[in-house]
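Bumping with the actual sequence this time:
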Amino acid sequence: MRLGLYLNLYGAPGERPQLADAVEQAQLAEQAGFEWIVLGERHLHRPGYHEILTSLTWLAAHTSRIGIATSGIVAPLYQPVVLAETLAHLDILSGGRLTAGFVLGYRPEEFALYGVRQRERVARFEECIDIVTRLWTEETVTYEGRFTSLHDAYLSPRPLQKPRPKLWNGGRVSAVLERTARTCDGWTTSFNELDADLPEKIAEYQSYPRGAGTLGNEVILCREGFCAPASQDARKSLEEPLRDLYDAYTGWKRTSTDAARYTQGWDDITDRSVIGSPAECADRIAHYDAMGADGIILRIQPPGMPQSEALKAIEAFGNL
């Protein structure tokens, strides 16, 4: 099973974690055999949140082999040509290690910040993915869209990976699963997706026709993760900072349909996570492998967890 490490980019002046902590975790994850380091995106966040693309570039410069991925960029907020060019250059700078994961976004504040109408997000998403893909793979692109017009446009240089870097998309409703199959190469779940719902959603995603030029139908699960010598050690290290994170999510996700899932108890969380002793974590990974997952992205360090604890857990996963 391929494992990814979701890095905590929260930051406040004078407090951990700093981006140097993310570098330390990324380097350890590379040594431990993780497949990817993965970053998310957030705006208008008072505690602080490092910007996704410049942070990914910094992490790429401080690692050499591990894949660098996003889960995900809020695609409707971006001018597609700028995004295509930036990501292409990041793939080149990293030596061909980029996987670009996208999401629709859900926070009204973020759309207002960028001057984008939230009701246009699906149309903007599809246009963005189409333009990015074509600029990465075609010599010249002429495009007349609802939001973007191009005439004989091209990128030089294009991404290092051929035919292009893989694209992931995250979401849970049927429309997102169909869109992912049609336009992208892999589906990423929410961290709070219930295990009981996963087999049906995986089957539904894989049932939709693949779009022309797509590169597969990977299933990548996002899960809370922590490995410690014993399950009670994992709970002691993780529960309080994770609960603080989930309390914050109830405010951020007030307009999202999954907001109620962040009020669940510890047993509910562990039932849909990879948390516990090495044996328990190995069993959970095998459980997801049997379910049909191609990879698991683990969020090991919620805000407030000491760096030393996160490093121990990363090393423990590498030893499984």
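The tokens above came from a reply further down the thread. DSSP finds eleven helices and twelve strands in the chain.
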